């Protein structure tokens, strides 16, 4: 071996040793994914709306069972699905809300949550609630986080770090609710939403996101809110579910196309609709006693007409309810969904599950 080759090997080894010692200790993990970034609406919010002017702020009794205390910034009694996924993947802490003043420094290297209640894929979605962080803005915020990571560890390391991170998006439900008024123009409305979402996902790819799990819209026509609003006896709102299924079909096709077109990317399709359908239809087999009534309720035949607020009545045993409030699942329902996403097959997640995605 020549002298030049030996020197080159020594330099490479020294570079690797220095990188290991100089790399912040707070970003060393036992799992195979660098960080966890979350985008979405109230189903995965962790408190961003506390920092904006909006009516949608998850106050107590939301978080009544949360291990770190309430209010938790979450619309459920305890943990949301990304909390559970993060824990199962080995993260010691939950991804913090982007707008929190404490979300800075090495903390961002573990991941950040950009989700906002009332947010949608379209900028106009949720405007009646006041301010919200729409999907376009959430991607803008991620771009700022990316620049902060580059500033901390350098561009080459940041690119590798970000490409080995997990990105989870659960958004679109509010767009479907807004689209109910355009039910006669379903195809046109769905095309607009999916086209907009495609541009946002392409932006994420251009910002070095590669391992991307995208949820479709749940079976929103079967929420206590919709059942009470439409005075349904016990059944779901069929037209709203039809709109949701049309959107979900187009979304799946779009994600498959992006994976083919964008080199090195994997877009995983999370079938939240199938999950909620299974829980509602087969709730007793999962140990639930109620699948169409809100645990945290004020008024409505199914407790669905008013969100969970300080005046709400809370059911004593949250493990027996699929729905925590008029829209959101209990932690018990979340735990079942998280298990399917982590280790399940194509009925609920495709082409691979979350655990396979992070190991890819």
What layout of secondary structure does this protein have?
Blueprint: H1 3-22, E1 36-40, H2 81-88, H3 135-153, H4 155-163, E2 166-170, H5 173-179, H6 186-206, E3 211-215, H7 224-229, H8 238-261, E4 266-270, H9 272-281, E5 290-294, E6 296-297, E7 313-314, E8 321-323, H10 331-343, E9 349-350, H11 354-358
Helix pairs in contact: 2-10, 3-4, 3-6, 5-8, 6-8
Keywords:
single chain, 360 residues, alpha/beta, Rossmann fold, two-stranded parallel sheet, globular
Number of separate helices: 11
Q: How far apart are the termini? A: 36 Å
Percent of residues in β-strands: 5-15%
| Element order: H for helix, E for strand | HEHHHEHHEHHEHEEEEHEH
What's the CATH first level? Alpha Beta
Radius of gyration, in Å, reads 21 Å
The major β-sheet equals: 5 strands, mixed
Shape: globular
Given as residue ranges, the uncertain stretches (5+ residues, pLDDT < 50) are 1-30
Average pLDDT level: 90
Summarize the structure.
By secondary structure, this protein is α/β, with parallel strands linked by helices. Helices cover 39% and strands 9% of the residues.
Written description of the protein model:
The protein has a single domain (30-220, 238-282, 331-358), classed as 3-Layer(aba) Sandwich (Rossmann fold), CATH 3.40.50. The longest helix has 24 residues, at 238-261. Helix content is 39%, strand content 9%. It is α/β, with parallel strands linked by helices and 360 residues long. It has 11 helices and 9 strands. It is globular and about 55 Å long. Helix 2 (81-88) packs across helix 10 (331-343), helix 5 packs across helix 8 and helix 6 (186-206) packs parallel to helix 8 (238-261). The protein has a 5-stranded mixed beta sheet. Strands 5-8 form a two-stranded parallel sheet. Strands 6-7 form a two-stranded antiparallel ribbon. Mean pLDDT is 90; it is low at 1-30. The two termini are 36 Å apart.
